[in-house]
């Protein structure tokens, strides 16, 4: 969405530094978990390892000195995946809740 022309999603800092094709190429070869050590019954097994590394780095480089609020949001997704959340009243009805 960083490369879209819509005002609410376009990000000039990202779009000037990297093309969409380059981003997709990097994303296609980026692996964040060892597939041989994953629990086959856990569909989200690749997520916790990267989240723990990111949390450590965030605390290391940006220590929070006060409490803050983070609101939840819905990331739209219309593909086939069993972990999709569906909420009828939301403007984004199908997606991942963050």
Automatic annotation (TrEMBL):
Chain ranges of the PiggyBac transposable element-derived protein domain: 1-98
InterPro entries in the cross-refs: PGBD, PiggyBac_TE-derived
Single GO MF annotation: sequence-specific DNA binding
Domain of life, per lineage: Eukaryota
Coiled coil: none
PANTHER family assigned: DDE_TNP_1_7 DOMAIN-CONTAINING PROTEIN, PHORBOL-ESTER_DAG-TYPE DOMAIN-CONTAINING PROTEIN
Protein's recorded name: PiggyBac transposable element-derived protein 3
Natural source organism: Elysia marginata
């Amino acid at each position: 969405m960083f490369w879209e022309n819509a005002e609410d999603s376009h990000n000039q800092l990202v779009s000037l530094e990297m093309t969409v094709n380059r981003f997709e190429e990097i994303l296609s070869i980026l692996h964040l978990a060892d597939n041989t050590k994953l629990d086959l019954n856990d569909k989200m097994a690749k997520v916790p390892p990267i989240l723990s590394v990111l949390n450590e780095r965030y605390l290391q480089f940006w220590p929070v000195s006060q409490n803050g609020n983070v609101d939840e949001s819905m990331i739209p997704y219309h593909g086939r995946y069993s972990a999709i959340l569906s909420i009828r009243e939301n403007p984004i009805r199908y997606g991942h809740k963050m």
